[in-house]
Give the backbone structure.
Amino acid sequence: MPTLDARSILTPTGGFLQAGYTHTLNPYSGCSFARGVCGVFCYAQHNGWVTRGRPWGLYGAKREARALYARDHDRLRRARGGPRPLRIYMSSSTDPYLPQEAALGVTRGVLEEMLERPPDVLVVQTRAPLVTRDLDLLVDLSRRTAVWLSVTVETDLERVPGLPPHATPIAGRLEALAAFRRAGVRTQAAVSPLLPIGDLAAFAARLDAVCDRVVVDHYLVGDGSQGLRTRRTPFVDMLLAAGHARWTRLEALEEVRAGLAAVLGAERVLVSCEGFNAVGPGHQERRVTRGGQVT
């Protein structure tokens, strides 16, 4: 796989993530999960500065990512006028735990550097159980700064009829959330974008056991264009052809939000942009005890 030169690895946020984060961090360019169902609807494929006219896929790993993070961190902390805040969303246009990460360790190298140069907030967003390889690092980092593990769990179905296979098993993602929660790292399930759900009550109970909170989203809200970007992909037609028409409407979002809230409590079920941006003071301290109480 090619390695790519970059002048920086921290990108100032804008749009969807601007309210909660100062920067995004993408260790890779593109995504090798493009052939899975997530690759069909992936919002990042509409970012021309990433794709540059190429078919959606993995384009390369960032060369010297760890050193780039160290340099960017020090520049922000030593900025004129005083240290700048550093709230990082990793990642916004790739997955930090692509299969290639198992051999390359690009993401792990960045996390190792963060132990020496911690940000103020770090949210690790992935759909890959490979994240458990770095459980030790993220537990250590969580003692020095606010860390959230956010795992995408769009559905309870291991295979959604009429759609391509998942990039990674749903069961493995839930197991990763459980492992991090047991270790004391804050955990979030991202039901985003919402896919058809087979048993909402059972799904809610499973999420209740493995995460502190849930963010639920729908492509009509979360793709940043009221669904126009998603309609440029085959995703909506696939849903309709497979008999999943009700999941193409916003009523499904409210139904799932209410079903999750009935089990987890309304304060633990967040929605779309507001939910993803619920980090920083007043948010990262909120934990759920074994008795289900939010503290």
Q: What stands out?
A: The mean pLDDT is 94. The chain has one domain: 3-276. The first strand starts at residue 3 and ends at 4.
